[in-house]
């Protein structure tokens, strides 16, 4: 990579990290999308780097302050999402290549519907959903992560429909996706998919991700809840279009 490519890479990392700490997700979406446009590094390599940096982001966010989680929510969400990741990887190996693009298109349509619902209902639910619903959305989120490396939309949609403060939603999402990233790294490392390029690109971005996460940890989101929900809806639409474009190229 040339100097200009390194600068483009670090700029993409900074923007992705800022949005991640604002909304609780979209780090991988933005980093992979921006680096795909600039072509600074191969995308398969960067998917592994994303997993490492998601962990670094969570550490930088939580080392400065202790997250406050809603009782009875995180345990079922985490357990189900990890189970979903494992099932998604197994399903990916079992399905033929012809089915995967069709599943991606269906997922893209579902995500657009979820984004439209967030925009149409500016106010959250009146009461917190029961733990079994968090487990169900966690399972679906992990399943999609194992299949398509796109775990965010179902869980993001569900959390942003709850009567919770933006900081609590962000903390919960960052925590769940960090644990999922740790499992993914363990699975990839066990299969020999990680190499020294992953290490060097991760080390290069580590101070930037850590510093931004640490700085944003002590500040509430600068957007009002309604605007933050609109931003989340737009990001979900971005995920949907990315998935649809990938699926159509494979058909």
Keywords:
mainly alpha, about 250 residues
- State the end-to-end CA separation: 32 Å
**Count of individual helical segments:** 10
State the share of residues found in helices, binned by percent. Answer: over 70%
The Cα radius of gyration reads: 17 Å
Largest sheet properties: none
SSE sequence, one letter per element: HHHHHHHHHH
Give the integer mean of the pLDDT values. 81
Helix/strand/pairing category: mainly alpha
Shape call:
globular
- Uncertain regions spanning at least 5 consecutive residues: none
Describe this structure in words.
The protein has one domain. It is globular, with a radius of gyration of 17 Å. The mean pLDDT is 81. The two termini are 32 Å apart. The chain is mainly α and 251 residues long. Helix 3 packs parallel to helix 9 and helix 4 packs parallel to helix 8.
What does this entry show, briefly?
The protein is an all-alpha fold. It contains ten helices and no strands.
How is this fold's topology laid out?
Elements: H1 3-23, H2 27-38, H3 43-64, H4 74-94, H5 99-120, H6 131-148, H7 152-159, H8 166-190, H9 196-217, H10 225-250
Helix pairs in contact: 1-2, 1-8, 1-9, 2-3, 3-8, 3-9, 4-6, 4-8, 5-10, 6-7
